[in-house]
Structures are given as C-alpha cells and as structure tokens.
Amino acid sequence: MLLVGYTDNVLTGRAFAIRGGYSTDANQEFLALGAANVGAGLFQGFPVSSSGSRTAIGDAQGSRTRLHSLVGAGQTHEKAARVFDEGPVAGLVRFK
Known about the structure:
Blueprint: H1 2-20, H2 26-42, H3 52-60, H4 67-86
C-alpha cells in the first residue's frame, strides 16, 4: 500500500511539475508523506495520500492553490445535507 500511495504522489507531482515548468524532489515527497502519515497515526487520523483526479480537476479549472478542494468539500457537504434533510428519518435514527 505504501508503494502505491508513494508512486501516485510522485508521478502526479512530476506530471504537473513538467506542465507547470518547475521541478519536484522525490525524496522530499517521501519524507513529507511519511511525516504526515506518522502524524495521522499518532493522532488516530486517516492515512494521507494525494488525489490525482482532484489535482487534474483543479488544474483544468485554472486554480493555483488548494482552496478549490475546500470549496468542493463545502459544496459536497451542502448537497449531502439537503439529501439527508429530505430523506427518511427512520434511516437516520440511532437505536440503543
């Protein structure tokens, strides 16, 4: 799993670095990914990786920062809240 996540990060980064005209360091990517996953493990978080499809969508939309991910998450949360508000209440009731 480590190898798949690492190669996904490095290859996605390298592809977009070539398109953007800058360079990446695979060793720095490895250290950053490892540190983020150690931190997630210490604080009982989820494993950290990248999303090549989200990167491609952001690039196609012309975004220059990671703010597009936050905006997308907010829109997804808003739409999911509407679906659950209109859905059956019985499916959301917690039984004790």
